[in-house]
């Protein structure tokens, strides 16, 4: 049974200008489903409609089509970590407010290579971008969500930290069976955490398949282009 079932999702934005108004079809007739414990990568260039899908699933914007979520809680990790933390409270205080279980918080900090004793005492503005982003990820895991929407959660991190965070997410997925929509413009990062991948272009699904299918036998030219754009090391 699917945890999340999205059928024929379409989102249209109206941009009202002074002399005219234009409609932007950000998402066109997109369908997919997600099983419990599964990670679906939503991949595409900037402007392809990925964030809009996430916002529709969260119920933040009007949409056409059907979104069926069979869980209780969705939590999200967004691109802008500073905006989503409380500016005046210490990290320790704001995390304990979510779950009064310091041991659990400490373990997650260890997993994401952060020193709880030092970082916990600080306020968001006193952290580096990479530290803040990891705190956001930890926070979104604390309330035991049924579904996580991760919208470019690691795009602002440098390469070494990216690998750390991807590794931690993969371990958490294996241990707790996280269900996640992993939104990214970077096909390479999906390789470490995703079970399936949906490739988007101009609001439409280009192709969907298992990680292996997409990486070893992509059917569509656009997917091949994305694969070829990955730097070879
Ligand atoms: N609130 C909005 N109002 C008008 N247009 C929007 C709005 N949000 C997104 N769009 C447009 O919808 C399209 C898809 O955007 P988005 O979902 O943010 O893409 P992505 O996350 O893949 O970069 C883009 O053309 C974008 O300009
Ligand atoms: Mg986006």
UniProtKB/TrEMBL annotation:
Keywords: ATP-binding, Nucleotide-binding, Transport. Residues 4-227 form the ABC transporter domain. SUPFAM superfamilies: P-loop containing nucleoside triphosphate hydrolases. GO terms for biological process: transmembrane transport. Coiled coil: none annotated. The keyword Nucleotide-binding applies. Pfam families: ABC_tran. One of its GO terms (molecular function) is ATP binding. The keyword Transport applies. This is Peptide/nickel transport system ATP-binding protein.
């Amino acid at each position: 049974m699917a945890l999340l079932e999205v059928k024929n999702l379409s989102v249209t934005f109206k941009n009202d200008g002074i002399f005219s108004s234009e409609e932007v079809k950000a998402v066109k007739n997109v369908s997919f489903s997600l099983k419990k414990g599964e990670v679906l990568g939503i991949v595409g260039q900037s402007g392809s409609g990925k964030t809009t899908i996430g916002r529709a699933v969260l119920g933040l914007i009007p949409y056409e089509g059907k979104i069926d979520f069979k869980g209780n809680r969705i939590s999200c990790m967004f691109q802008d970590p500073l905006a989503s933390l409380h500016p005046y409270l210490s990290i320790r205080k704001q995390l304990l407010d979510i779950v009064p279980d310091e041991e659990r918080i400490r373990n997650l900090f260890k997993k994401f290579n952060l020193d709880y004793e030092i970082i916990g005492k600080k306020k968001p503005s006193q952290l580096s971008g990479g530290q803040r982003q990891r705190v956001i990820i930890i926070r979104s895991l604390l309330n035991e969500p049924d579904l996580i929407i991760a919208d470019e959660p690691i795009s602002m991190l440098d390469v070494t930290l990216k690998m750390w965070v991807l590794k931690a997410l993969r371990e958490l997925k294996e241990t707790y069976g996280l269900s996640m929509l992993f939104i990214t413009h970077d096909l390479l990062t999906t390789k470490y955490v995703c079970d399936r991948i949906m490739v988007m272009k101009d609001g439409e699904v280009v192709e969907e398949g298992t990680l292996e299918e997409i990486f070893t036998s992509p059917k569509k030219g656009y997917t091949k282009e994305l694969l070829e754009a990955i730097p070879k090391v």
